[in-house]
Automatic annotation (TrEMBL), chain A:
Forms a complex with SecD. Part of the essential Sec protein translocation apparatus which comprises SecA, SecYEG and auxiliary proteins SecDF-YajC and YidC. Keywords: Cell membrane, Membrane, Protein transport, Translocation, Transmembrane, Transmembrane helix, Transport. It holds the Pfam family SecD_SecF_C. It is found in: Cell membrane. This is Protein-export membrane protein SecF. It comes from the Bacteria. Residues 112-292 form the Protein export membrane protein SecD/SecF C-terminal domain. It is a multi-pass membrane protein. Its main location: membrane. The chain crosses the membrane at residues 16-36, 138-155, 162-183, 189-210, 241-259, 265-291. Part of the Sec protein translocase complex. Interacts with the SecYEG preprotein conducting channel. SecDF uses the proton motive force (PMF) to complete protein translocation after the ATP-dependent function of SecA. SUPFAM superfamilies: Multidrug efflux transporter AcrB transmembrane domain. It comes from Thiobacillus sedimenti. Signal peptide: none annotated.
Automatic annotation (TrEMBL), chain B:
Residues 422-590 form the Protein export membrane protein SecD/SecF C-terminal domain. It is found in: Cell membrane. Residues 1-103 form the SecD export protein N-terminal TM domain. Residues 312-420 form the SecDF P1 head subdomain domain. Residues 229-288 form the Protein translocase subunit SecDF P1 domain. Pfam families: Sec_GG, SecD-TM1, SecD_1st, SecD_SecF_C, SecDF_P1_head. It comes from the Bacteria. This is Protein translocase subunit SecD. The lineage of its organism: Bacteria, Pseudomonadati, Pseudomonadota, Betaproteobacteria, Nitrosomonadales. It is a multi-pass membrane protein. Belongs to the SecD/SecF family. SecD subfamily. The gene is secD. It comes from Thiobacillus sedimenti. InterPro entries: SecD, SecD-TM, SecD/SecF_arch_bac, SecD/SecF_CS, SecD_1st, SecD_SecF_C, SecD_SecF_C_bact, SecDF_P1_head.
Amino acid sequence: MLEFFPFKRTIPFMSWGKVTTMISLVTFLFAVWALWEKGLNLGVDFTGGTVMEVHTSQPADLPAIRAALEKTGLPEVSVQTFGTSRDVLIRLPNKGEANASETSNRVMAALTPGNPAIELKRVDFVGPQVGKELYDNGALALLVVAFGIMAYLAIRFEWRFALAGMLANLHDIVIILGMFAFFQWEFTLTVLAGVLAILGYSVNESVVVFDRIRENIRKMRGATVPHIIDDAITRTMSRTIITHGSTQIMVLSMLFFGGEALHNFALALTIGILFGIYSSVLVASPLLLMFGVKREHFIKPVEKKQEAVV
Amino acid sequence: MNRFPLWKYVLIGITLVIAFLYTLPNFFGEVPAVQVSPVRTTEKADTALLGRVESALKSAGLGYQGVELAGNSIKVRVASTDLQIKAKDTLQGALGDGYTVALNLVSASPEWLSSIHALPMYLGLDLRGGVHFLLEVDMKAALEKAAIRYQNDFRTELRGDKIRYGAITRQGDAVTVHFATRDQRDAALNKLANVFGDLAFTPEDQADGFTLAARLKPQAQTKVQEFALQQNITTLRNRVNELGVAEPVIQQQGASRVVVQLPGVQDTAKAKDILGRTATLEIRMVDEQADPTAIQQGQAPFGDDIVPLRGGGKIAVKKDVVLTGDSITDAAPGFESTSGQAAVHVNLDGKGARIFKDVTRENVGKRMAILLIEKNVAEAITAPVIREEIGGGRVQITGMETAQEASDVALLLRAGALAAPMQIVEERTVGPSMGAENIRKGFHSNLWGFLAVTLFMVIYYRVFGLFSSIALAINGFLLIALLSMLQATLTLPGLAGIALTLGMAIDANVLINERIREELRNGATPQAAIHAGYDRAWGTILDSNLTTLIAGVALFWLGSGPVRGFAVVLCLGILTSMFSAVTVSRAMVNLTYGRKPRLAKVSI
C-alpha cells in the first residue's frame, strides 16, 4: 500500500492554534491592505470599455500602432503585446457613450493601412451601465453563496460550525482577491466565477473535517474536544491533500494548456485550492474551538420534564 | 455484503449505453452545409421547399450529400467548402429574396444518431467565432415617439370637431394644448378624454390662457414600451435575415434589452452597420406656401419642419405625417423605366395604400417629401411632384444617386423601422481562428489533466484507483451526454467547468478509498472495509457536494452569459459525479470482489 501520509499518531494541530491564527491573521490583513491600497484591477466586464486583440502577420510594431491610433482621436489607448510578439492587445476606456460601439471599427480602419494582413481575433466592448450591473450582480452572488452555505452548515451541523466554516472560507476568498489586487492581475467575470466555485469547493474541506469531528464526538467518549479535533484532522489529512492535489492537477493543466483566456481563472483556482487546504485545517477548526464547541451540542441530553411547582 | 441486485447492474448498464450514444455525436466533427430558411417568420420551411431546393441543385449539376428539414430551415450537406459557396449562390438565385441562404456547418454524425436526437452540443460564440451584441432600446424615446403621435392626433381630432386651439407643444413625453378660453379647453377635454382612453389629462389655468396637458397612463406606458421592444426585435430579425447568418439568436433580455448573436460572422463592421441603423421613413407633404428665404435661413413656418434635401437645399415639410415606414410591406431596388435612374419600388399595406390614394388624389400638382430619419436626423431623400392619384399601393421612389444607395434604402425599408432607437451596450466578437484555438486549448487542458489524475490514482490506489479513474471517465461521458441531451451551449468557461468538475469529482472516490484503507488499518475484513468505506463516505460526499451545488445554483441565478454556462456544467457535473463515484465505482468493486465470500486481500 502506497501511502504518502502515514500518520500513526495524532498530530497536535490545536496546540499550534496561536501560531496558525497569527499566520492567517497576518496574511488576511495583508490581503485586506492590498485590496484597500491597490484595489482590484477590474476587467472590462465590470468597468466597461473596449478590449481588442489583433493578430499581425509580422512581429507587431507597437509604436507605429500607437501612432496610428492616436490619429483617430480615441482617448487613452493602451497597446501591448499579448502572449506572442504578433498578438496585440488594445484597451480603450469608456469615454462618453456616443459611438462607443463603433470604436472597434475605427481601430481596425486605422490599423489596416499599415498592416494589410491584420486579423481581428477578439473584441469585448461593455457599456458602463452593463458593467456596473455585472459588478452588482457579482457582489450579490458572493453574498448569496456565502449565506446559502452558512445556512446549509447551520442546518446540517450547528451554528458554530457554520460560522467557523464560513469565516475560514471568506478568509480564502479575501486572500485570492488580495493576491489579485497586489499583483494587479486582471479581475474578470470568469475569475469571479472561479472565486465563487472556490467558495463552494473550499467548504467541502471544512465539511469533511467537521463531519469527522461530529463522528469523533460521538465515538471518542473520554477525549477532550481539542484532541477530538486533532484526531479528525489527522485522519482526514491524507484525503485532504490527495483531493486537493488531484483538483490542483486539473487546474494546473488549465493554467498551462488552457491559453490566455483561462489563465486568470485557473490562477484564482490555484490560489484558492492552496489556501483551501490550509484554512480548512488550520483556520476553521481553531475557530470552532474558539466558539466553544462542546460534546453536548451533538449528544442531545435527555430532556427533563419540567415539574410543576406546587 | 458487497453485492448489487441484478436490476442495479442493468440500470447502470442502460445508463452507460445511453450516455455513450449521446456523447458520440460530439466526436464526429462537422461538414460544410448550406442552410435555407424563409425570411418571414410566418412562413414555414416545408417539403415543397425541400423539393425546390433539390431540383435547383440537380438542375445546376451540383452534387450534395444529404438534405434535411430541421426546425424552420433546410440544411444541405456538401462535400467541400468550394461546393458550399456554389450551392449557396445557386440556391439564392433559384429561390429569390424570400429566403435566406447561409453557409453553415452541420454535424457529421451518422443519420441513425440524429434520428434518436443524439445531437452534438451547440458551440458558443467563443468556441466557433462570431459576434454577440447586447442592444438597449431607448425607452424614453419610445414614449416621446408616442407623444408625437398624440400631438398629431390631437390636431386632427380638434380640427374635426372645430374646437379652436392654440399651440400644441411637447416636452419629453408630455403634450400640452393651449386654449384662449376655458370653454374651449373644457370642450377639448371632453372630446379628447373620450377618444384617448390611454391618456391622463390635467387641465391648468395659466396667467396667459388655459392649458390641457396629456401624458400616457402608467399601464399604457408599459404597453408602449413592451410594444417598442417587440417591434424592435421583429425589425432586428428582418435585418439579421438580410445578413444571411446561419443560426442567429435574437432574444429579449430583461425589460429593455435585446441579445443578438451572429455565429460565424466575420465582417463585424457590416453587421453593426445594418443592426445599428435607427432609420425610419416618413412621408409628409411639402409646404408650398413657405417663404423660400425663410427656409434657407432655417426659420420654420408654424406647423412645419425644415429638412435638408438630398443633393442640396432645404425644404419645409408639414409636421403631419402622412405615412410611416410601418405601412411598407416590401421594397426592392430597381430603375425608373423612363429615365433609367436608380429607384426603389415600394409596396404598401391596405391601410397605407388607402391613405396614400386619398392624399395623392387631393394633392395633385403638389410636392410630397419622403424623409429618411436616421439617428433623429431627418433628410428628404426626394420630394417629387404628384402627377396623378396613385392607387393600388405600389409606389416608386426616385432620387437615389447610385444603384447601391437604392439597394441600401430598399433594405432599410424592407427591414422595417425601429419603434425606438437602440444602441449597442455590449459587444463581444471572437474571430474564427481564436474560436478554434479556444476549443483546442480547452480540450487539451481537460485531456492532460485527466491523464495526470488517472496516472496518480492508479499508482496510489492500484485496482481501486483504476476503478476510480474509470468512474471519472464515465462521469465525463455522462456530463457530456447530459449537456448534449439538453442541447446546452458549450462555451469556454463551460469547458473549464468540465475540467474543474472532473478534478473535484475524484474527491468522492478519494474519500471512499481513504475510508476503506482506514477500516482495513483498524482491522476490519476486506469485505467489511469496502462496505463501511462506501457507507460512511456517502454522508460526507453528499455534504461536500451540496455546498458546491449551492455555489453553482447562485452562479446560475445571478450570472450572465458564459458564467451561466459554467454554472450549468458545475451543477450537472456534481450530480453526475455523485452517481458515477458512488454507484458506478461500487458496481465495479462489487463485480470484482463481491462474489468472493472470504476475501483475503484487496488492492488498495
